[in-house]
């Protein structure tokens, strides 16, 4: 049986079915309706996959299977994982599977990928997750049956298919309130944790600790700086992915290289925010809850045997 190891090791200690992480990449995390909102989840996925393969020095034609997590799939088109894979240059003969396990979708996709290597089914697999919460559509749920007299109601796809507990018929924030009650977590506890988390994120960003994993994305009117998706600038820590978007004639290209939510952090304001889900004695706010974001991340997983064969 193969083993998954959490630390780097010498080649003499790697078994043939051990799972090796040889490539890692993620986009910056864009805020809701923010810098990355013009890109679909599948496009963000393609950016992360292509960058991870380049960093691993693995040719896309060698990939045997792709598992990619995605929750808000409405309006993305068929088989989102396959779209992301083909957009990254992976051949159309490669099997691709989209995984929806809500918040754990990317993690479950990675588990499937690792298990396929441990079982001997594959040697090179791409795994990860992608989401564009900004682009989740709103539905007119009854329109197909015919819209007659009266007003039609819109259903928020992000809430309906992502942030709503279908069993308890409540928002996920209400579930967080229940957890806080069950574990005696006060508003002060949650605010302190959120502040510490943001401060650590800012420190890591400012020290460059995140730079190695992030794929900077540049938006330009015409993507003709190079014949390739990735371009290199002097002093850049890694190649930059260029995207052709209508930024407006005469405007300078826009470079997105840092997580947006950290720029909005204000500890004083965070402590003053009103509860979002429970009016009386609520503890979960927009500041201490998970943010609504856009982004993607990808891993290239390889069996120990194949890693040694390819010199990875």
Automatic annotation (TrEMBL):
Q: Which GO terms fall under molecular function for this chain's record?
A: acetyl-CoA C-acetyltransferase activity
Q: Which UniProt keywords apply?
A: Acyltransferase, Transferase
Q: Which domain of life is it from?
A: Eukaryota
Q: Residue ranges of the Thiolase N-terminal domain?
A: 19-218, 243-303
Q: Has the keyword Nucleotidyltransferase been applied to this entry?
A: no
State one Pfam family annotation: Thiolase_N
Example GO CC term: the record gives: mitochondrion
Report the record's Gene Ontology biological process terms: fatty acid beta-oxidation
Q: Which Gene3D superfamilies match?
A: 3.40.47.10
Q: Which residues are listed as membrane-spanning?
A: none
Q: Which InterPro entries match?
A: Thiolase, Thiolase-like, Thiolase_N
Family membership, please give it: Belongs to the thiolase-like superfamily. Thiolase family.
Protein name as catalogued: Thiolase N-terminal domain-containing protein
**What species is this protein from?**
Aegilops tauschii subsp. strangulata
Q: What high-level taxonomic lineage is stated for the organism?
A: Eukaryota, Viridiplantae, Streptophyta, Embryophyta, Tracheophyta
